[in-house]
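I would like you to sit down with the pair of lines that follows and say whether C-alpha cells and residues agree.
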Amino acid sequence: MSKITTSGTWTAITPAPPGVSGLNTSHISWGTPAGGAGGKSGYSFSGGTVEAEAGGPEATLGTFTHQNFPIFGNGVDRFDVDLVVHIRFEEDDKDRDFSFRFHHFETPNTGPSPDDEVDLPTRVSPESVVIDGESYAAVITGFKRNGEIVNKFLSPENGSNSADIVASLSRVGVPDVVISDVHHKGGVKYTQADEYVEIVNRGTAHADISGWHLYADDPGQSFVFPPGTTLKAGQRIRVYTNEVHTEWGGYSYDSGRAIWNDKGDTAHLSDGNDELVSDYSYGIEAEDDEGEGEDETY
C-alpha cells in the first residue's frame, strides 16, 4: 500500500445547458434557477489522501456532490460532464491525470421518479500509468453512499447529495472479477429472500462470465451464470437468494430457503473451467483471515 493524494476539475459539459459556470474548477454549475431557496444545479469534486495499491482493493478516489435545485434547462435535460482527477503518488511526488465522463439526466421534478440520475457511461480512464513495468488505469467501480456502493447515483431535488467515488488502479486490458460482499442477513422472515452476493469487475476490460459458478460449501447452493453474461469493467452485479432486481442484473438462485449462514460462511466463484477465481468469508469462517469480508483472488 502507498499513499495517493487526489484533486479534480470539471473540464467540459456537452451539450451545454444555459448558465454554465465553473469550468476548469472543482465546482461546475448550470441552469437558470426556477425560483425558491435554491440556485443553479451543479457538481463538485473533493479529493483527499488515501492508501491505495496498484492491482489491489478499491479505494476512495474523492467525494462527488450534486447540488440539485429546480432549474430551467432550455430543453437540455441529458448531457455529459467531464472530470479530470489529478492523482499524486507519494513515491515520486508527481501528478498523473485520469479523465472520466459523468452522464446526467435532469429528470422532471414531478412524477414517479423525480430524482435526477448520474451515471458513468465509461468507467475506465483512457489514460494509464506505468508501475513496475506494467500499465495501469483508474477504474471507477461505484458511488458509495450510506455504506452501500451503487452503479448509478440518484439525487433527490432541493438539496446537496454526496457520495464517495470508489475506484481501483488496475492493469490495462485485464478484467479483475471478485466477490465484494455477502449480504447474509436478509430482512424477509423465514426465507431471507433478499440475501445476496455482490460481484464486481474492478478491472479495465469486460469479463465473459458465462458458465461461471457461484456457490457455498453445501450441496444445492450453486448458481451458474447463463450464456452471454458479460460483466463490464467497473460494473457490480448481485445474485439474490429469491428476488429479482433488474438494476443489479436480475440474477437469483430462486431458492425458497436461505442460503447464507448468518453465523459465518464462504462464497466461492469459479470460472467455466472450475478454476477458483475469488472467495469471500465472513463471520466464523473469517476468523483466520485478516478481517471479515476479506476477498481472495486467484
Remarks:
- The chain has a mean pLDDT of 92.
- The chain has two domains: 2-171, 177-297.
- The chain is about 0% helix and 50% strand.
